[in-house]
Amino acid sequence: MPMKERRKLLRDIVYSRLKSRIVIGKLAMGSKLSENLIASEFGVSKSPVRDAIQMLERDGLVIVKQQSGTFVVRPTKKHLKEILEHRHAIEIGSLRFCDKDRLSDLGQELSELVEQMEMAIAQDNTALFYILDRQFHEQIVASSGNQLLVRSYEISSALMAVILNHYGLSKDYVMKAYGEHCAIANFMIDGDLKSVLSILDAHLDVERNIYYGDARSL
Fold it and tell me: How many C-beta atoms surround the C-beta of residue 10 within 10 A?
C-alpha cells in the first residue's frame, strides 16, 4: 500500500476510535489528549494522530490550545445553545423535505426503536436509551434524503451524545422524551405530518433542552 494511502487509513482508524471514546464518555469532557500516549497505544506514529486530531477539531469534539495541548470539548452554555439550535433547525427542516409517501414507513421504523427504548428504561439502561435516542433522531434526518443535511447533523448529534453521557438526564426527563418519541412515531404512522412537526418542535425546544441534567452548571 502506498505511504499516502496507509497514512490516511491509519488516520481514519485513530479518528474513529478517539471519536467513539469521546462520544460515549470514555474520554471525559475537558480531559487532555496526549499525542505520544495515543500513538503508543495504537501502535502508530504521531503523524496520523495529529491528522485525526485535526478532524476531531473540525467536528468540534476537541479544542487545540497553543502551548497547552489538546482537550476534549467542554461546551459553554452559549455553545450548548448553538448546538441545540443547529439540531432543531436540521431535524425540523429534514421532515419538511422527507418523502411524504414514506412517512408511515418511517413511523414504523421509529416505533421499533421506541419499543427498544421501553426495554432500556425497564432495565434501567440509560446508556442504551441514549444510543437509541440518537438513532431515532438520526433516522428523522436521514428521511430527508439530503446527504448534506445528514453530514451536518452528525456534528450536533455527536456533541449532544458527549453532553448526555457526561451530564445525563433525570428519570422524569427520560420518560417525557420517551412519551414524545411514541407520539412522533404514531403520528407518522397515521401520516399526520402537522402533528409530528408540532411535537418534534416542542421536543427539541432550545430553552427546554438547555437544562439537560446538570448542564445548567455549564
Answer: 20
Q: Return all residues near 143 (Cβ < 8 A) that are at least 6 apart.
A: 94, 95, 98, 99, 102, 106
In this structure, what C-alpha cell is assigned to residue 133?
435516542
Q: What is the DSSP string of 99-151?
A: -GGGHHHHHHHHHHHHHHHHHHHHTT-HHHHHHHHHHHHHHHHHTT--HHHHH
Report pLDDT digits (tens) over 26-46.
999 999 999 999 999 999 999
What is the tens place of the pLDDT at every residue in 164-196? 888 888 888 899 999 999 999 999 999 999 999
Instruction: Give the residue numbers spanning the domain of 159.
Output: 77-217
Q: What is the pLDDT of residues 206-217, one digit of tens each?
A: 888 876 645 444
| CA–CA separation, 201 and 89 (whole Å) | 9
pLDDT in tens, 71-102: 999 988 888 899 999 999 999 999 999 888 89
Q: Which three cell numbers stand for residue 145?
A: 434524503
Element (H, E) at 72: strand 69-72
Q: How many other CB atoms are there within 10 angstroms of residue 205's CB atom?
A: 12
110, 158: one domain: yes
- How many domains does the chain fold into? 2
Final residue of a domain: which of 41, 72, 103? Answer: 72
Longest dimension (CA), the chain: 57
The whole-number pLDDT of residue 141 equals: 96
Q: Which of 72, 98, 113 is a domain's end point?
A: 72
